[in-house]
Amino acid sequence: MKKVEYEVKNLDCAGCAGKIQYKAGTMKGVFNANLDLYKKRFILEVDEDFEEDSFLSTINIFANSIEPGTEITKLEEYNEEEELKRREEERKKEELEEKKEKITIIIGLILFLMAIILGKISYNLRIVLAVIAYIILGWDVVLKSFKNILKGNFMDENFLMTIATFGAFYLGESTEAVGVMLFYKIGEYFQDKAVSNSRKSIEKLLDIRPEYANIKNKDGELIKVSPKKLKIGDIIVVKAGEKIPVDGIVIKGNSTLNTAALTGESLPIEVDVDSEILSGSLNGAGTLEIKVTKLFADSTINKIISMVENASNKKAESEKFITKFARYYTPIVVISAIIVGVFLPLILGDFNLWFGRALIFLVISCPCALVLSVPLTFFSSIGIASKQGILIKGGNYLEALTSVGSVVFDKTGTLTKGKFKIDSLEAINCSEEELLKIAQIGEYYSNHPIGKTILSQLNSEIDENYMEGYKELSGFGVVAYYEGKEILVGNYKLMKEYDVVVEEKEYAGTIIYTALDREFLGYIYISDEIKSDSKETILELSKNGIDSYMLTGDNKKIGEMVGEKLGIKKENIFTQLLPQGKVSQLQSILDNSNKKVIFVGDGVNDAPVLSMADIGIAMGGVGSDIEGITPDDYYITTLAKKDCKFSEFMEEEREQLKELLNLQIALVKPKIIVALGSEVAETLLDRDVKLGEERGNILEWIGGIKLLITYDVNFVKKSRNEAGKKSRAALEFWNDLKILKQELNKIDG
């Protein structure tokens, strides 16, 4: 199964779009068809039986028969200059058409009013003015109607309007005929205006797409190239006022970046050497040299643009229904009007009365307004949201938001800023400097915000060669082995687990307990700050009858303190939760709610609950997290962060990890699992795994799930040779991914 996309030209009729879409869906090799009238795109899901040339020939003949001039063509490869030129031409054409339409409506309105006023003086003058006004306003509608009748395809709004207005003339109501056509034209004008405004809001987002990149050649000269031509490892230069073309790392210079287009955050962020930066950001005053770390196709800005562009492809149930209903709607309307206008007079008499009522019925039942109204609502909403920095993956999510009863929040990084600071140190059996140093060694490989906070105070280098082992225990902390000594850094539960004698303390923040060889060294007091708009959000939800919940791994005192400040009910605050505890608690909320439940999180760590909720919202999710938090096609989870060269998991640890993993598998229901590293594979298979022999093979696992074993990503990253070239392991890892792709194609087929 693959997706193909085509451009649609000269199509403005929503009813016609629905017919073309339906026709395409019945053609050979087409699994699913979606015609997006607003973006002028035709997106198909096709299989190996699909023949493009035959499809285009057939669908163009059909499209032209129901809407003359409609053309469906191959989508040309994106070219920055051509795209800008095309958009400018479309803008000028749109402005010209809008001006013509305005003039037509104004002239028609003047003649319409003159026909009403002067018609009181002279009946013949009224007829003349009405006919002139009608020709000016409705000649194109009548012409389209007759063309469609000749082609045998007349069940559209043009036919309905023509019949209704001609009937009004027959009944002697010339001004009513003009009035109907006038108001139809006004309605069409505002409809086109609404579509245009929504399209512009989407295009405004596309303006953040970088147009070029400055790359250094062999002579050190800067040349402009397309961002698509950049390779990983290339050195690019971004001058003041230019957009960052791809994701990368700063290797020279410092500046401030405007990331409003990505995150909605108005405050600039400072970057210098070794700072990771995201494409789509706007460079401030300084010049930066950046090493490319991601191809343009994988960069943050391209993912955002793709997500917004494809949002309308995921249709809500109401959209699907109205599109399907429209196919039967017009014939039903016409048949009903014939019954009212022809057959009822035979029974009840008074032909003119019932004929007039039939015409009124035709006018108010115009199908295009019906077909357009629902999709336009979703399209406009997605466009408006994109201007506010909110990315919505489809109309189906918008529709679900209308019936939300509960919102469940993660705490750290969602309701709070997630930017920690060390308040104080309390050393017990050592100096404060020694306490901090030992904690930093323990957190050396940590990616947790608290771990990074501790490492940010690093004053001296830590020799990685002396690091002999590292384990991250979810919900407890970390265990590290350095120079033959065991280092424990985490919460009170970690100390208790390893039989460290220590007094448990309470603090309106986070306490990090540190021990060396099971001897307690001291406390590190850390706090987090509540976001300025969190309380207002909770209040607004409450006003709208929506309950707020908070799930956190923090202790009860911290959780309840934060919850109280925000206005969350005490019974809706759940603390000291491990990942599996969050899942269980969310399941309980889902079971007890008769409405939709939202979970709001801030990263991949929240993936189990984000995927489990009716709607998942990722706070500040840019870069890879956009795709990783709420994936449609794949799901990423981490058992434990552990360097490949370090010691194996203890048996009790593996059992805990297995329990968590099985829970996530039950929720996600995957078709295939990729085990990265022997540790994960052994946890799944409950046996020893010889990675060198078993990697790259597709295994049958429990419940028909397939399993692919390959190397740990960290191992692949660290296995480069001295020249920095790909190692044998990296090449084998790449081959394993190719095997995965082949297997996925089989599954999709």
C-alpha geometry: elongated
- What is the CA-CA span between the terminal residues? 6 Å
Radius of gyration, taken over Cα atoms and rounded to an integer in Å? 32 Å
Mean pLDDT: 78
Strand order of the largest sheet: 6-5-7-13-8-11
The share of residues in helices is: 40-55%
Structural domain tally: 7
Structural class by helix and strand composition:
alpha+beta
Instruction: Figure out the total of helices.
Output: 26
Determine the strand fraction and express it as a percent band.
15-25%
Strand tally, please? Answer: 27
Low-confidence stretches: 621-632, 641-648, 721-725
Largest sheet: 6 strands, antiparallel
Describe this structure in words.
- This protein is elongated.
- The strands form 6 sheets. A 6-stranded antiparallel beta sheet has the order 6-5-7-13-8-11, with no helix packed on it.
- It has 7 domains: 2-76, Alpha-Beta Plaits, CATH 3.30.70.100; 94-207, no CATH class; 213-300, Calcium-transporting ATPase, cytoplasmic transduction domain A (Distorted Sandwich); 310-397, no CATH class; 403-416 and 530-629, HAD superfamily/HAD-like (Rossmann fold, 3-Layer(aba) Sandwich); 421-527, Calcium-transporting ATPase, cytoplasmic domain N; 651-748, Uracil-DNA glycosylase-like domain (Uracil-DNA Glycosylase, subunit E).
- With 749 residues, the protein is α+β, with helices and mostly antiparallel strands.
- The model is unreliable at 621-632, 641-648 and 721-725 (pLDDT under 50).
- The chain has 26 helices and 27 strands.
- Strand 21, helix 18 and strand 22 (573-574) form a beta-alpha-beta unit.
- Helices cover 48% and strands 18% of the residues.
